[in-house]
Design brief:
This protein has helices spanning 3-17, 33-43, 45-66, 71-135, 141-174, 201-211, 213-231, 240-304, 310-344, and strands at 28-32, 183-187. By secondary structure, the protein is mostly helical. Strands 1-2 form a two-stranded parallel sheet. The radius of gyration is 29 Å and the shape is elongated.
């Protein structure tokens, strides 16, 4: 890794975590999305390896040109160089998506833990009320036992939410080579406030073919092998062994191209179909929110009329909050899928972050 890159990573870590990088202990950590992503990319072993492969391929290509190698050998090295560049771009895009995914996962886990704690408070309150009603002769023993079992289930959900939050926090910090902090403040919108994109499968497939490192390598190598075979057809200029070798190379290149075409088509179909499935889920979540909102409004009226207890209203409020959280999660999943499609099609991903930017992100 270059000195310049090491310095950049160190600077980004300072931006991300503040004075604790310089030796001061702190268990609070505030982070904006863009510097977090930049640090993840710069710390990624996969990205670093891919960029080294680009440097090695470029060096080999330039050396061959300088030394006056055969034209087709130089072209083969040029293909390897361009393939390495496309692959490195793919790795950067994938790491960027993983960073956003970790960011979302931590935010979601924190929300779910908060909700789980609130549900536990409500369950404890309900049990207390039922026990008081039992003592007053207004409740049966079986109803209290049922409420205790429900409380145990809610306690278990809360423990699961704590484990998931801890795991998300560990993964969040591991990606930027820092020790986990007990409190993390993510500066991010809870909702994306954007409508999903629409995609055309043939157009997406065409774009994928122009940016995929595997497809480019397979197609370019096949074209080169065809030209090489044509150049070696004259028996007065080539040996039989050379002609057999290039024929085998051409067959291998053709098989690789067929496989690359199939893989690219499958990827395009998978990306678009998964996006459409998530959009249908989003529509369902929106209808669920309307129902939860209606139930909350009804619960408020019932409380005023003395038909339900305050704990029942709190439960309706929690149900509505959970519906909002599921909607935000589905929006986030759609956004991540759109990032995957954009990355696969060679789009610049940074402009898409505008939907997540908040005050303090530059």
């Amino acid at each position: 890794m270059s000195v310049k890159k090491v310095a950049r990573i160190f600077l980004l870590l300072i931006i991300l975590s503040g004075p604790q990088v310089l030796g001061e202990e702190s268990q609070e950590f505030e982070v904006a999305l863009k510097p977090y992503i930049e640090t993840c990319i710069n710390c990624s072993a996969v990205v670093i390896k891919a960029e080294k492969e680009v440097e090695a391929a470029e060096t080999a290509y330039l050396r061959a040109r300088k030394q006056g190698w055969a034209a087709m050998d130089i072209e083969s090295l040029a293909i390897a160089y361009q393939t390495a560049r496309l692959y490195a771009q793919e790795m950067r895009g994938q790491e960027m998506i993983r960073a956003v995914q970790r960011y979302f996962a931590l935010s979601r886990a924190e929300q779910e833990l908060t909700t789980a704690k609130k549900k536990l408070e409500i369950a404890e309150q309900k049990l207390k009320i039922k026990e008081l009603r039992l003592a007053s002769g207004l409740q049966s023993t079986n109803e209290v036992l049922t409420e205790k079992n429900l409380l145990l289930a809610v306690e278990e959900k809360k423990l699961e939410a704590e484990d998931e939050y801890d795991q998300a926090r560990q993964e969040f910090f591991r990606a930027i080579k820092l020790e986990p902090k007990s409190q993390v403040f993510l500066r991010i919108y809870q909702s994306l406030n954007k409508e999903p994109r629409t995609y055309d499968l043939p157009a997406s497939l065409h774009q994928l073919r122009t940016t995929s490192s595997k497809f480019y390598s397979a197609q370019s190598t096949y074209t080169l092998m065809k030209r090489k075979r044509e150049a070696l057809q004259d028996p007065e200029l080539t040996t039989e062994g050379e002609r057999k070798k290039v024929a085998e190379e051409l067959r291998s290149a053709e098989q690789n191209l067929v496989q690359a075409e199939r893989a690219t088509a499958d990827l395009a179909e998978e990306l678009v179909n998964d996006h459409q499935s998530l959009v249908r889920k989003l529509q369902l979540e929106r209808r669920t929110i309307e129902l939860a909102r209606h139930q909350l409004t009804l619960a408020k009226i019932q409380l005023v009329n003395g038909e339900i207890l305050a704990s029942d209203l709190e439960q309706s409020a929690v149900d509505y909050q959970e519906a909002l959280e599921r909607l935000a999660q589905t929006e986030g999943s759609i956004y991540l899928q759109e990032l995957r499609i954009a990355a696969a099609c060679g789009e610049e991903l940074w402009p898409l972050l505008q939907y997540l930017t908040v005050a303090g992100d530059h």
